[in-house]
Amino acid sequence: MDSKGESLGLIGELKYHVGFVYFIIFGIFYFLISWASEVGYYKGFNMDSFQEIYIGIMLLMPGITFSAITHYVNSVHKSVSQFKILVHLICSVIIYFCAVVLFLRYNQYFIASSLGSLLFLLLSKLLLAVKYPIGQLFVVAIGSGIVFVLPVHLLVGKSYSLGTSILLWTIVNGQFVHRFSRKHLKKESMNSV
Q: Model pTM?
């Protein structure tokens, strides 16, 4: 409903949720890629070419897509220079890559997922000038670590454990970005009436 108490209609309401839908779509996409990679490995298929594609996608794409969707969600109510957007994208990929190294090389699941979340949200706060409350960033980072670690440890040996972790991490972080942006978008639309 708008400030006059009138319904915004389906299209009006959807504009508040499109960013989160993008987060869910990419979370499911990464889940399916991870699951397919693990299933092929466990079933003994020759997955060499798929593994190369999987590694290439998973080393870069989540950093790119999360940055792009975060910018999209926040661009609805804020204008940011193209240079800052590019720097945000590059730093996002670097943060994600470092988190993957912590995860794969040092088996630091919780630290990798929590630190990756915290650094990304801090980067967004600084470069995109999003007013995320600092305390909430730490809560989201800890929540990200928990939802990433649980499937990996509870579903040991299951072909969908890593994919589930990635999906849940994306939902937690995407929901925070979406909820915060939506709150400000609604506040601005009420002020403009």
A: 0.77
The tens digit of pLDDT for each residue in 90-109 reads 999 999 999 988 988 888 88
Residue 4 lies inside a defined structural domain of this protein: no
- Domain residues for the domain of 101 are 9-191
CA 174 to chain centre: 5
- Rounded to whole angstroms, the Cα distance separating 104 from 98 reads 10
